[in-house]
Amino acid sequence: MSFFSHNEYIQEGDLVLAWMNRSNIRPLTVTRGETLHTQYGSFPHDTLIGVKYGTQVGSTAGASGGHDAQRGPSSRGHGSAAGFIHVLAPTPELWSLSLRHRTQIVYTPDASYIVHRLRVRPGSRVLEAGTGSGSFTHALSRTVSSSGQLFTYEFHGPRYEEALQEVAADGINLNTVITHRDVCAEGFDNPTIANSQRPDHVISQLRALNKVGVETPVEGLNLQANAVFLDLPSPWLAIPHLSRVLDTSKQAHICCFSPCIEQVARAVETLKKYGWKKIEMVEVSAKRWEGHKEMVKSVGDAVERLRDIKRRRVLGLRKRNERIARERVQDQQNGTSEETFVASTAGDSAAGGESTPAADDEEEGGNDQQQQSTELKHKKGPTEKYRGFNPWGKGQRIREGDERFSWLDVSRVEPEIKSHTSYLTFAILPPVMPEHLFNADGIVISSLPVSTESASEPATVATPTVDNVKVETTST
Ligand SMILES: C[S@@+](CC[C@H](N)C(=O)[O-])C[C@H]1O[C@@H](n2cnc3c(N)ncnc32)[C@H](O)[C@@H]1O
Fold first, then answer.
1. Each residue of 5-42: pLDDT tens digit?
2. Which segments carry the region annotation Disordered (predicted)?
């Protein structure tokens, strides 16, 4: 199981995403004897083994998080009384919603657009800086797949360490190499491979040769990258280092991800200086549309509700004045009171005010006749407050689509729209013209496009794989 492929059924050791809701997705590595405790109950990992990915799994205990061993696997597959989760296979899209944010991250709407514009595909060789929380790293890694290679750089120590562990745990170290480096100062050449990115048997071999260090430079590696993604504060300092590590026989694509327009201006200036063409800045603004039901309210009901409020208010005021009068008489028997009456005619009271204390107070404003006309009155629970003529369940918890009301299907945009994330500056570096197309005076002697792939021998590219010994592979 990995971000590249997964089995149909969960196995021990799998990375599984426990979906509680959109803002609560918990990654877990399925380990016998361990239990996931959530506000929706407890989920022993043992009960997840053998479950099909995508299944809704019921908890084995209540929300208290206790463990009900007796119910065990029998509760699997269906939501129990306590609660449930969905067990999902990891994808970069879900991962970006579930990961622990160490930095700002690239979200899927930007990520998918950038991957497309950078022409990243299986087999691509991509440079990324900085790694940050690893959100985009996962998207790039999946896209380049096992035939491609991703080199990602992070200069912040703890973030590098965390990303390193994640890359190994998530199985994307198949094609991803993280280097601890300030790319603005030192560039991208000779990335390093940390031992945690190596399979165990290679570590043993290196140990036998007494060659184990924490990180080993990948000597002589020609990165031959064809796509670059820079998500760091000063991309203009990293751009000059790129010429040495790009595959100059083909077009190279770059994207600088910058929140401020000043950063864009400086990046554009530097891109021009270093020969990048077709420079373009884009901002992605994604809106999600959702289907909903909206309650249908008739004008007649609205008018009746206003009348009811007015009637109840007048009655409430009358009762209040009666009470004050009673208290006044009592006060006069005991001493004096200066309290004044509140106007009690319909003309004197504002018709729209629903919050007059007496209007909502059944004890004082008890309006038997109007209460009888209330459609929902008989449905109210013992503790529910009487709210007058209330054809729309105002003040109650109404589920969308509640059959006591009429509804209209509508679509609307999600309430929380993320506005600006970053400006995306794209550019292309044209390939270097092969020398054989020029004569000695530098004049172009052929305008025929020559494919470098088919031109002579296939180019050889060193790929960092199992150890610091170069492995020659054929580039695609
Ligand atoms: C906004 S975060 C990247 C987030 C990442 N794209 C993601 O989706 O999770 C920027 C990262 O770049 C790193 N960084 C900044 N300047 C750098 C440099 N010169 N070399 C390497 N990393 C750098 C920072 O430490 C930070 O972790």
1. 778 999 999 999 999 988 899 999 999 999 999 888 89
2. 325-395
Please tell me the residue having the least CA distance from ligand 1 atom 26: 132
**Cα separation of 278 and 425, whole Å?**
10
Question: Which residue has the least CA distance to atom 25 on ligand 1?
Answer: 156
Question: Of 237-241, 289-293, 348-352, which range is least confident?
Answer: 348-352
If 0-12 CB within 10 Å is exposed, 13-18 middle and 19+ buried, where does residue 212 land?
middle
For residue 52 the two structure tokens come to: 């099909």
Q: What is the pLDDT of residues 194-211, one digit of tens each?
A: 656 555 655 565 555 544
Best probe residue, ligand 1, of 98, 115, 118, 154 (max atoms within 8 Å of C-beta): 154
| 154 Cβ inside 6 Å of ligand 1 | yes
Distance CA(157)–CA(138), nearest Å, equals: 20
- The dihedral sign for the CA sequence 135, 140, 145, 148: negative
Locate 334 and state its tokens: 């005991």
Summarize pLDDT for 122-137 with one digit per residue, the tens.
Answer: 999 999 999 999 999 9
**Is the separation of the CB atoms in 238 and 183 below 8 Å?**
yes
∠ CA 366-371-372, rounded to 5°: 135
* Span 422-457, pLDDT tens digits: 999 999 999 987 777 777 776 766 655 555 444 444
Structural domains in the chain plus CATH codes: 15-90 (3.10.330.20), 95-286+423-433 (3.40.50.150), 293-413 (no CATH)
129, burial (CB in 10 Å: exposed 0-12, middle 13-18, buried 19+): buried
| 129 CA distance to ligand 1 middle (Å) | 6
